[in-house]
Each structure stands twice: as structure tokens, then as C-alpha cells.
Amino acid sequence: MANVKPKTEISLAGTFASSAFSACWAEICTIPLDTAKVRLQLQGKQAAGQALAAPKYRGMFGTVATIAREEGLTALWKGIVPGLHRQCLFGGLRIGLYEPVKSLYVGKDFVGDVPLHKKILAALTTGAVAITVASPTDLVKVRLQAEGKLPPGVPRRYSGAMNAYATIVREEGLGALWTGLGPNVARNAIINAAELASYDQVKQTLLKLPGFSDNVFTHLLSGLGAGFFAVCIGSPVDVVKSRMMGDSKAYKNTFHCFIKTFKNDGPLAFYKGFVPNFGRLGSWNVIMFLTLEQAKKFFSKEVPS
């Protein structure tokens, strides 16, 4: 008799926990690249009022090296606390709800491969819902990462993540925690769709090819594909989001930020930090999906066939 793998299932709580854990682990491993990405994206705004000022940061590894040399190695992990707050909420919700929402869109009696447009719709939905909840954590992370570009001797506005939350509410009002929500929702819904739907689709396609099975190599290739699609599609809104969150007083709204960036820095500004962004999202997706596939096994349980 042929060996048949036992059927397993995972609860919604288990899905959320494995998603949050995987997202947090990926965040810890890759936040130095995220810090480099934010500095590169904010650099155009910093240099805009300085005629012929040479860029301080050049390239992903150059930016990482400059930050480590001038501010210390720990500066590369600045923003990790709100980053973990964000991933517990955002990662847990957007990834954890993806399968239930996808099942909702196709119907409980659906059999066969889920159409790509249903996967995209499910990922857009969970990305938008999750970042609406987690947007304050994103704002604080960007503010803390951006503070490192201040000249030596200039006092920092925030002593840490919790102080940043309190200071923003006290000085700017509670609603300020959701500054840049529009581009943030757009960016994260789009990137979530690019990540989850492409991972799902690439993995599904690979498993139909001879020689591929549901193993680490397949998960690695699928994760790289997810990261590449996410950066290509999401870079413009990511740049707008970082600039608005880095200095909310410089822009009236999302459209104003887009136009001002285009006028001051040109169209290529929307892909500023592309290499560190791909390095960050590509590695983030590989680490997250590899961890997720294993974590889900821990939370799964066998059920009778």
C-alpha cells in the first residue's frame, strides 16, 4: 500500500502565531537593509536645499558602512522595537488572514487551483486591513530610523519607541500616528499582493514541474520571486510613504509629495534605494517564508482522513 501523508490542519490562532513569529524573525535579520533603504529614500529631501551637495549615502553597502562608522553598529537596528511591534500586528494579520480570506473569496466548496486574481484580491484585502491597524508602528519606526541623519550634536526628538509614540500624540495629536496612512495602505496592500499572491503562484507553478517538491529549495525560489515582484511594483509608493512619514510637515498630502518628489528629484527618485529595497525585501521574503513553512508544521495537528 502506498504511503499517504496524514492530513493536517492549523487553527486561525496557530496561523496568526506562526505568521507573526516568522515576520518578526525576518525583521530582526534584515532591518539593517531597511535602515539603509530609508536613509537613501530620504536623502533627496535632505539635499534639496543644498546646492551641489554631494550625497552622503551611496549604494546599499556604502550606506550600511557609513551608518555603522558614524553612528555605531547598533544604529543599523534603530527602529527594531516598533519594527517588531509592526510585524506582530501587520505580519500576523496580513499573512495569517490570507488563506481564510482567499477561501472566503473562492467559496468553501471550491476544488482545484485558486485563480490568480482571487489570490491578488485576498492579499490586497489583508494588506489593507493589517496596515490600517499597524500604521502607527510603521510611523514610529521610520521616525527613529530617520533621526540618525541629523548632524552630530543636534538633540534627538525621541529617546525610544514608547517615548516616540507619546511625543507624537502629545505634540501632533492622536491622528498624527496615522500620518501617511493613504500611501501606507496603498504601498502595503500592493506589496502584500505582490508578495503573497506571487509566492503562492510561483510555488504552485514550480510544484507542477518535474523534479520539484514542497521543500526548502522550492520555498527559497518562491520567496525570491515574491520579493522581486514586490519591489518592482511597490517602490514608488514606498518612497512617497518614507518621505511623508520622515517629515509630515513638508508635504500637504500624498499627491503633493508625489509631485514635489517628481519635480525636485525626477522620475528615477521613485526607484531610489531600489537595490537595498530588493536586498531587503528579497532576503526578508526568503527568511519569512522559509520560517513560516516550518512554523506552520509546529502549530499544525493531524486530523482523521
UniProtKB/TrEMBL annotation:
A Pfam family of the record is Mito_carr
The Solcar repeats are found at 10-104, 114-205, 214-298
* One term of GO molecular function: amino acid transmembrane transporter activity
- Sorted alphabetically, which Gene3D superfamilies does this protein's record hold? Mitochondrial carrier domain (1.50.40.10)
> Key word Ribonucleoprotein present in the record?
no
Q: Looking at the keywords, is Repeat present?
A: yes
Q: Where in the cell is it found?
A: Membrane; Mitochondrion inner membrane
Q: What are the record keywords, sorted?
A: Membrane, Mitochondrion, Mitochondrion inner membrane, Repeat, Stress response, Transmembrane, Transmembrane helix, Transport
**Membrane topology listed for this record:** Multi-pass membrane protein
Q: Name one GO cellular component term.
A: mitochondrial inner membrane
* PROSITE patterns assigned: PROKAR_LIPOPROTEIN, SOLCAR
Per the record, the major location class is: membrane
Family that this chain belongs to: Belongs to the mitochondrial carrier (TC 2.A.29) family.
Query: Sorted alphabetically, which PANTHER family does this protein's record hold?
Result: MITOCHONDRIAL DICARBOXYLATE CARRIER-RELATED
Protein name per its UniProtKB record: Uncoupling protein
